[in-house]
Specification:
about 230 residues, alpha+beta, five-stranded mixed beta sheet, 7 helices
């Protein structure tokens, strides 16, 4: 009798999905536990655990999305107002930002929108946002402006040490580049580049840009959607 074959691709996808759900529950439990602990130092430790769990959860969501659409990225187009996305972003990450006393500023008019995949764009911005919270000194600014008839650009700026040269170099490399030797693989940026470029309109496609020219003196991430 031949041994049953194992579909490792499906097994991996199911495992990632289960881990993602468990981490989501862990994140919520950490928030609940912190609200019951009066000790500031312990709250800070729980906030750091919360951040790491969020980061792992984000990577798993990205891997699952890439696996499901590995042949071709399918974009669901819908009109989405950016102020709603950013409000959700800030609320979901308030626990960590407040624990680090980060001042958050949003400069987004309520009439700025994009036409594209809300879930994927939200995931891209969330990944950038939680990393900016990790490396900033104490300030974050999210800005958005209208570009052309329906396009827009979104920037996330901080007053941290800025992007290292290894990440700035990704601006000029192919989107499928991953530095597996470094401590940061660039998976989030790889995901962001693919999502941005999958958004197309009238011969233009989206893109991302990394800079160390923030108005706050740190890093600046820009996402452009046509």
């Amino acid at each position: 009798m031949s041994k049953p074959s194992i579909d490792f691709s499906t097994l991996l996808a199911v495992s990632v999905h289960d881990m993602k759900n468990s981490l989501g529950l862990l994140v919520q439990q950490l928030e609940d536990a912190a609200s019951k602990v009066p000790d500031t130092e312990t709250q800070g430790e729980l906030a750091h655990m919360h951040y790491e769990a969020q980061r792992i959860n984000t990577n798993l969501v990205q891997l699952l999305a890439l696996y499901r659409q590995q042949d071709s990225l399918q974009i669901e187009s819908e009109k989405t107002y950016l102020d709603e996305v950013v409000e959700e972003l800030v609320m979901n990450n308030r626990f960590y930002s407040e624990s680090r006393s980060i001042t958050l500023t949003a400069d987004i008019a309520d009439d700025i929108f994009f036409v594209g995949d809300r879930a994927l764009i939200t995931q891209v911005l969330n990944d950038v946002f939680i990393n900016a919270m990790r490396y900033t000194a104490d300030k974050l600014i999210i800005k958005a402006k209208r570009v052309a008839d329906r396009g827009c650009s979104i920037t996330i700026e901080d007053n941290g040490p800025g992007y290292p040269d290894s990440l700035l170099a990704l601006n000029d490399l192919q989107p499928r580049y991953l530095d597996m030797e470094g401590s940061r693989t660039g998976l989030g940026l790889y995901f962001a580049r693919l999502i941005a470029e999958a958004h197309k309109y009238k011969g233009q496609h989206g893109y991302i840009k990394l800079e160390n020219s923030s108005s706050l003196g740190g890093s600046r991430f820009t996402l452009y959607l046509p």
